[in-house]
Write a structure and sequence with these properties.
Length: 225
Amino acid sequence: MSFLIYIGLIILIPLFAQMKVKRAYKKYSKVPSSSGMTGAQVARRILDQNGLYDVTVEEVGGTLSDHYDPRSKTVRLSSANYHGHSVAGAAVAAHEVGHAMQDAENYAPLKIRSSLVPVASFGSNFSWILILIGIFAQISGLLLLGIVFMAGAVLFQLVTLPVEFNASSRAMEQIVSVGVIRNNEERETKKVLDAAALTYVAAALVAVLELVRLILIYTGMTSDE
């Protein structure tokens, strides 16, 4: 029974977070910002205000596929946010510019996260092979190795939290200071950013829970040997 509750939690927590961000984005993507600026214009204005003239702003396909690419120094905005004039679009654009500002300032958590990308990618893709073999074949050494690799992926999730929260904080500060939003739009913008942040919190929580569960399985296995 407890295992079923656990499985339910690790499924429902991310689903709840995704539902919150989609609901907030859908609602406020229909609310035009008082400035009337598109997401692309918002991103460009904040970048220029902070002297980041070398960072480009590009349109990318998909929905909520917005991101900052530190390799090419490019803020990429999904079509709806790139061309749209909504509060949600302004919030997302400002958030991605927040990452560009972090990159320009060599923000420590961002540098740490970037260095963990290969570890996280390898851990996410390879750790479960070792874990499953270790559990079914009752080979504690393989299970432990899988847990170590998985811990790298979990660490990446945890380091992501301050990076994303800081980018959202910068976004709020910047869109207010450059006059993109006014008055009650601050509350609406914060709801979009908070909902997006919840997805990272949910991902980190699920990763930590799964890591703890595997550690308990390993300790139980070694105590029986």
